[in-house]
Task: inverse folding
């Protein structure tokens, strides 16, 4: 991190003379600023975050007829779980399992392909590995939407249209550039000396990969897992265009269809939104540090 | 932007070479990616020189689609909207996330609890959040019973807001990480010199967060170019065509008028724009010279 | 999470070691087993269109009326005809908002449906040009069940260049002016028969703080219905016929401009309320506004009855009234003219592996059982036996009204977006949307439409 020279306060600034007996505690931690403005700001943002969430939960527990006449902000007089039943009976479970399959498979493919690639890019500095690496850099700039039409052609030709694979394969492909960058960065931090030591023992590249590289790259790998899994979980465009029937439908597309299906049955619609958030929320509760750490790893570059 | 390795003096002696994986290991990844990303990109470019309605075969028409691109008034509108949306999203998300991130970097316990709550919107998918706000903004049965999504400014602001609501938690994290890295000694020195809170913020915090701001900005800008489900679910490009940003225009050209050739031309232009913009941002900010995570945080 | 593409140059190893060890083997194992399961299920689901005399897929527009089609499918799958043709039918219900794009993408892929729902005429022009729809004229000619099963005018309404491409499979769908009987009774109003009466009713309703008309503006095609009737009442059916036949200058007919101006007057006057732009029909918004009495009238296709019956049965049974679109003084259109959809059709994909099953299935649409199901839904079938069945409708008055309306109509203009086909139809929708949101003035609307090619 570059330490720029700070603009030094000039001599004309006042230097308050501190009365001798007064403790200098206030200045000890820069973080301890009782900042009323910031406090107000964060309170405002808290309201902004909580109101929709509250409205969502409250409306989802209201019965449909009441919702058509009442105000969603008022807590329901007779809370009911009917809406959740409605959603669960509309194939929600199937949507969920499809999405989990997609997420797991995408993560598997991404790791399975990108770890060896990063390994080669870092360890074998030939012309080809450099070129391969630059190929993926190019890939970062390709927005998924631009290639939807030709991808559709490809998928149709492969007879994969309207299947989970039609969603999995492109999603995995588009998660690769960032994953490659993250992994390459992580692997680069592993010192050459360690490899040399293993080489002296006669270890094969494969053994080095599994015994040295992967254990040391856990941070990067978890970042990639989280990134790829979230891409798969939240992906919408590919399922929208490449699937149509109930069987391969994933959660995001299911929500989109619920808009037409439930329409102004707002309680049911919001119940489906709540249900869609529960799996990630569960992961968040269980693995909060890992999740946040992984995300910081994606963003903090 | 080359992130190739700083030269590490590796004696290329036979013994050490033995431990290196052959380039073949990279092949599966390269093949897979080429097939599912590079080839389609090239195909999109090829399709932009054809006329195709999805049913027959693509017919070559030379530069007709590109000519249409330059003449199309809807494209100008779409481009302007996309730029405006990106700028507005950046302003909204950066200001809020930066302030929140710096605030959250403090170690008071209540800040940790609140940060956890603030993170919740990020757990919902973009689709879910768009559906949520679509329901809440319904003019007859929602919270604000006014026609928010039916007015141009209302629709536009709704999209900016929804995008921010979802991603500000993420960017807050980034800024929080960045702010935590700032050495306290800088603040102590400034405090001793009599700099007040606001002075400290502008003279220390902001400059120190320069790299973080860059990272966050690149993410927001590249991301705004691809806002799709929010527009599709909330406004369908409307009212009229007042929120039809470029990705939506492309979807409409392809999947509503079935003019896949023209849609591909728009797509190719979008990629060129995205690449150009990314390269520009990277060059302007010296981003490419960064080597490790620590720098950006 | 498409916004999170960052240029990441590596993680400083100390981050993210919150105790979760993502063992690579575990991930690989899970991924492999997921791939296997997916692969197996993908093989299964890709088999939509009959693998050699097997199951055939039928696409249908997924709204409240699909129960009739589902019943037909169930009936067919148990029947002897199914056994002879060695095939069963699988019905796929596509949500309305997505039907046209989904049909298009599906038809371009190897797993295209064998039988598909459409509106006839312009809506299948592109498919016919690409050889993706079977010419049924001879099949119908040679099969008495099909030949005599449907009202000839309806069968012909879906033609392209005089050839039949589809079998009628839904009720007739004229656009009708619905109104809320109790609101009208309270306000002491009668349904309008002339335009002046309509404007008068609007004023009275607004005074009572009731929105005169419900309108699903965000879908745009409900707005189209207004233009269709206005143009027809002002200038007669020839105005649109000219446009339908390919003459874009037809948009320059004074009737079109006058209709657009009248629309603007209605909007500025508050006839549709202030929120209609973001209200949708397809997701139930406009029907709900109407059923709950927030709006007193609703200009909609005849399916509004079955929709209301499905969503708000009490309203449908006791308070739903209907009338013809009023006459416009000094207009030349016959007040008996009707706009809307004659019906919907099922067409056959030439690539189907089991054409016999497809045809055998479609014959069910001419059957009495099918017609009776339609009648029970509140629709009026387009079969030749329709008139006789009307008395068993849930609302015989409504059924008779519809039937007479269509039978006596000198002209029945097909919905403009279906008549023009997907490409022009979508562009026209955009212009109509701009007119109704005030982004285009009536004259701008006309010149934009003239440029639609």
Result:
């Amino acid at each position: 991190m570059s330490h720029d020279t700070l603009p030094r306060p000039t001599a004309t600034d006042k230097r308050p003379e501190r009365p001798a007996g007064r403790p200098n505690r206030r200045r000890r931690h820069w973080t301890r600023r009782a900042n009323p403005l910031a406090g107000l700001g964060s309170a405002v943002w808290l309201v902004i975050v909580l109101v929709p969430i509250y409205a969502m939960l409250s409306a989802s527990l209201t019965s449909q007829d009441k919702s058509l006449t009442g105000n969603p902000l008022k807590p329901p007089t007779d809370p009911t779980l009917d809406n959740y039943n409605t959603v669960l009976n509309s194939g929600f479970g199937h949507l969920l399992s499809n999405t989990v399959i997609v997420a797991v498979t995408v993560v598997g493919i991404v790791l399975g392909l990108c770890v060896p690639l990063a390994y080669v890019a870092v360890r074998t500095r030939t012309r080809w590995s450099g070129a391969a690496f630059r190929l993926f850099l190019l890939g970062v700039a390709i927005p998924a939407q631009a290639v939807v039409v030709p991808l559709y052609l490809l998928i149709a030709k492969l007879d994969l249209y309207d299947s989970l694979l039609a969603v999995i394969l492109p999603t995995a492909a588009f998660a690769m550039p960032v994953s490659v960058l993250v992994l390459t960065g992580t692997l680069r931090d592993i010192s050459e000396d360690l490899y040399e030591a293993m080489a002296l023992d006669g270890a094969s590249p494969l053994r080095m990969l599994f015994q040295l590289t992967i254990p040391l790259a856990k941070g990067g790998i978890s970042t990639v897992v989280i990134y790829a899994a979230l891409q798969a979980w939240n992906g919408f465009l590919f399922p929208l265009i490449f699937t149509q029937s109930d069987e391969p439908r994933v959660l995001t597309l299911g929500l989109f269809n619920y808009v037409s299906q439930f329409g102004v049955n707002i309680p049911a619609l919001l119940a489906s939104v709540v249900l869609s958030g529960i799996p990630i929320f569960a992961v968040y509760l269980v693995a909060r540090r890992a999740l946040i750490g992984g995300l910081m790893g994606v963003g903090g570059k | 932007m080359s992130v190739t390795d700083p030269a590490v003096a590796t004696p290329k002696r036979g013994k050490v070479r033995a431990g290196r994986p052959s380039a073949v290991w990279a092949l599966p990844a390269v093949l897979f990616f080429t097939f599912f990303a590079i080839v389609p990109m090239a195909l999109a470019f090829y399709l932009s020189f054809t006329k195709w309605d999805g049913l027959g075969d693509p017919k070559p028409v030379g530069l007709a689609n590109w000519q249409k691109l330059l003449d199309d008034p809807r494209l100008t509108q779409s481009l302007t909207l996309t730029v405006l949306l990106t700028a507005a999203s950046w302003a909204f998300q950066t200001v809020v996330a930066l302030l929140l991130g710096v605030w959250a970097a403090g170690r008071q316990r209540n800040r940790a609890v609140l940060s956890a709550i603030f993170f919740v919107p990020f757990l919902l998918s973009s689709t879910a959040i768009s559906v949520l706000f679509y329901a809440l903004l319904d003019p007859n049965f929602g919270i604000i019973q006014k026609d928010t999504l039916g007015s141009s400014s209302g629709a536009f602001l709704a999209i900016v807001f929804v995008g921010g609501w979802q991603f500000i938690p993420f960017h807050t994290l980034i800024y929080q990480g960045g702010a935590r890295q700032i050495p306290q000694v800088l603040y102590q020195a400034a405090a001793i010199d009599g700099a007040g809170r606001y002075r400290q913020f502008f003279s220390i915090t902001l400059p120190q967060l320069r790299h973080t701001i860059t990272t966050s900005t690149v993410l927001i800008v590249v991301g705004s170019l691809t806002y799709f489900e929010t527009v599709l679910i909330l406004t369908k490009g409307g009212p009229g065509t007042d929120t039809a940003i470029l990705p939506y225009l492309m979807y409409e050209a392809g999947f509503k008028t079935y003019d896949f050739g023209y849609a591909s031309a728009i797509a190719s232009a979008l990629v060129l724009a995205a690449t150009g913009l990314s390269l520009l941002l990277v060059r302007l900010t010296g981003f490419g010279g960064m080597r490790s995570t620590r720098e950006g945080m | 999470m498409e916004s999170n593409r960052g240029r990441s140059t590596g993680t400083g190893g100390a981050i993210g070691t919150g105790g979760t060890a993502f063992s690579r083997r575990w991930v690989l194992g899970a991924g492999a087993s997921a791939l296997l399961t997916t692969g197996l299920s993908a093989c299964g689901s890709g088999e939509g269109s009959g693998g050699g005399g097997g199951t055939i897929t039928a696409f249908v527009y997924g709204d409240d009326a699909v129960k009739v089609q589902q019943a037909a499918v169930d009936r067919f799958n148990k029947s002897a005809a199914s056994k002879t043709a060695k095939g069963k039918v699988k019905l796929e219900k596509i949500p309305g908002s997505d039907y046209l794009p989904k049909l298009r993408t599906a038809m371009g892929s190897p797993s295209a449906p064998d039988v598909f729902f459409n509106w006839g005429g312009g809506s299948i022009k592109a498919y016919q040009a690409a050889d993706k729809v079977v010419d049924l004229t001879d099949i119908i000619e040679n099969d008495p069940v099909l030949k005599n099963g449907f009202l000839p005018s309806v069968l012909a309404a879906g033609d392209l260049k005089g050839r039949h491409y589809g079998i009628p499979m839904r009720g007739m769908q004229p656009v009708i002016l619905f109104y809320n009987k109790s609101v009208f009774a309270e306000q002491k109003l009668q349904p309008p028969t002339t335009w002046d009466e309509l404007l008068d009713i609007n004023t009275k309703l607004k005074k009572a703080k009731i929105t005169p008309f419900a309108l699903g503006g965000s879908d745009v095609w409900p707005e189209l219905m207004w233009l269709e009737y206005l143009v027809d009442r002002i200038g007669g059916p020839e105005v649109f016929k000219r446009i339908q036949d390919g003459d874009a200058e037809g948009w320059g007919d004074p009737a079109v401009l006058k209709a657009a101006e009248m629309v603007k007057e209605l909007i500025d006057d508050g006839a549709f309320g202030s929120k209609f732009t973001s209200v949708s029909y397809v997701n139930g918004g406009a029907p709900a506004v109407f059923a709950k009495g927030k709006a007193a009238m609703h200009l909609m296709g005849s399916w509004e009855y079955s929709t209301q019956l499905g969503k708000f049965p009490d309203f449908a049974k006791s308070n739903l009234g209907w009338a013809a679109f009023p006459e416009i003084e000094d207009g030349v259109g016959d007040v008996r003219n009707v706009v809307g959809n004659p019906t919907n059709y099922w067409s056959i994909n030439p690539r189907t592996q089991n054409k016999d099953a497809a045809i055998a299935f479609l014959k069910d649409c001419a059957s009495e059982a099918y017609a009776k199901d339609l009648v029970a839904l509140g629709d009026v079938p387009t079969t030749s036996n329709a008139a006789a069945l009307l008395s068993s409708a849930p609302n015989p008055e409504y059924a008779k009204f519809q039937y007479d309306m269509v039978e006596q109509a000198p002209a029945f203009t097909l919905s403009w977006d279906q008549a023009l086909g997907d490409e022009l139809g979508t562009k026209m929708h955009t212009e109509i949307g701009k007119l109704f949101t005030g982004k285009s003035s009536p004259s701008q609307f006309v010149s934009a439409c003239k440029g639609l090619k």
About this structure: Residues 1-32 of chain A have pLDDT under 50 and may be disordered.
